[in-house]
Amino acid sequence: MNFQNAISWFEIPTLDLNRAQAFYEQIFAMKMIPLDTPQIKMRMFPLESPMGVGGALVYNTQFYKCSTTEGPLVYLNGNPDVQNVLDKIENAGGKIVIPKTQISPEYGHMAVFIDTEGNRIALHSIPQQK
What are the chain's domains? Predict the structure, then answer.
């Protein structure tokens, strides 16, 4: 087995899928891709390649629970600088709980925010190679 990435897919729970979609589209300046099944409604983050790491906002109240304190912490790509995303979070309806913080010079920066659905989500950016 060959692991290129530790994560291959993630799902972020929502209470209001349209509100969550608007929040993430605003802070990342992109359009999400609708993908609904009879059991679950999803809005996928755009992928450059079908083989890349992907994820989606999901709505199914019997299977998912939003939380600011429980469960895994997902780190979304904040390249080239997490501050660019953080600057949009409060205007979009979210709350910053850990501001831009350096992990180390080699591993870049991280931050944590609460989205419009009450989920704790993190950002990570890697220093640009010069």
Answer: 9-125 (3.10.180.10)
